[in-house]
TrEMBL record:
PANTHER family per record: SHORT CHAIN DEHYDROGENASE (PTHR43976), SHORT-CHAIN DEHYDROGENASE_REDUCTASE FAMILY PROTEIN (PTHR43976:SF16)
Protein name as it appears in the record: Short-chain dehydrogenase/reductase SDR
Family statement drawn from the similarity comment of this UniProt entry: Belongs to the short-chain dehydrogenases/reductases (SDR) family.
Coiled coil segments of this chain: none
Membrane-spanning parts: none
Sorted UniProt keywords: Oxidoreductase
GO MF annotations in UniProt: oxidoreductase activity
Length: 281
């Protein structure tokens, strides 16, 4: 059976890879992007199986309007992919108020509002799937990426809470946690705060210089096409896994971080119990 997918942020990166793969497999895609003309080549090849709309996901009213129109015109949408996002780099002190607001609006608030827009439709049609493209950066943290990590940890918490709310309606949720992949995330897709000399030689300054291409790059093992294929394959499963950790680096980093946090939690067990009221047994 041919499915219909709704995907945000399809002009590049994972969104573009997913759109191209799905169309090649004969699926139908409702693709949104700030510049939908970036999909002209796919439209020419696949015709009316590609539905397009211009969308800046930070415009909540517009996002709701596009979602409503997509469901109205396409009849049913089986899978929703919340993908739009970008990286903001710089020590917290180096970021402007506007950069902070834009990062939160794009990576976190827009994902929440997309969920609020699509869930009533999915519930009324009897179910569906939602994929949130997050990051292993929702499980770990690096210097110079504090606001990016705040948004990714935020979507993790949002979906961890929302997934059981939606399960009774047949709506499955999967948080996708890729590692470093060969997209434009650290290149043309990156935004930088204004550098302060006090941070230049510290860890945030070093990472900023790596991302900016002034120092040798970090290993980037992830293949965007393989990430897209893993997402599509997951959509074929009847049981939706809550998380898909994709990439050898993502798996190693998340494993180490979780083990460290568990060890620290166990080390503080006696203190934690000592703060209970005296009548607690």
């Amino acid at each position: 059976m041919t499915r219909t997918w709704f995907i945000t942020g399809t002009s590049s990166g994972f969104g573009r890879e997913l759109t191209a793969l799905l169309l090649a497999r004969g699926e139908r895609v409702a693709a949104t992007a700030r510049r939908p003309e970036t999909l002209d080549d796919l439209a020419a090849e696949h015709g009316d199986r590609l539905w397009r709309a211009a969308l800046d996901v930070t415009d909540t009213a517009r996002q709701r309007e596009v979602v409503d129109r997509a469901f109205a015109e396409l009849g049913r949408i089986d899978v929703v992919v919340s993908n739009a996002g970008y990286g903001l780099f710089g020590a917290a002190e180096e970021l402007s108020d506007e950069q902070i607001d834009r990062q939160v609006a794009t990576n976190l608030t827009a994902s929440v509002q997309l969920a609020r827009a699509v869930v009533p439709h999915l519930r009324r049609q009897g179910g569906g799937r939602i994929f949130q493209i997050a990051s292993v950066g929702g499980q770990i943290a690096f210097p110079a990426m504090s606001l990016y990590h705040a948004t990714k940890w935020g979507v993790e918490g949002f979906w961890e809470s929302t997934a059981p709310e939606l399960a009774p309606f047949g709506i499955g949720v999967t948080i996708v946690e890729p590692g470093m992949a060969r997209t434009n995330f650290g290149g043309g897709g990156a935004v930088f705060g204004a550098p302060l000399p006090e941070y230049a030689d510290g860890p945030s300054g070093q990472l900023r210089r790596v991302v900016a291409g002034e120092l040798p790059p970090l290993p980037t093992p992830g293949d965007p096409a393989k990430v897209a294929a893993a997402i599509v394959d997951s959509a074929d499963r009847a049981d939706a896994p809550l998380r898909l950790t994709l990439g050898s680096d993502a798996h190693a980093l998340a494993t180490a971080a979780l083990r460290d946090r568990l060890a620290a939690l166990e080390a503080g067990r006696e203190l934690a119990f000592s703060t209970d009221a005296d009548d607690v047994r």
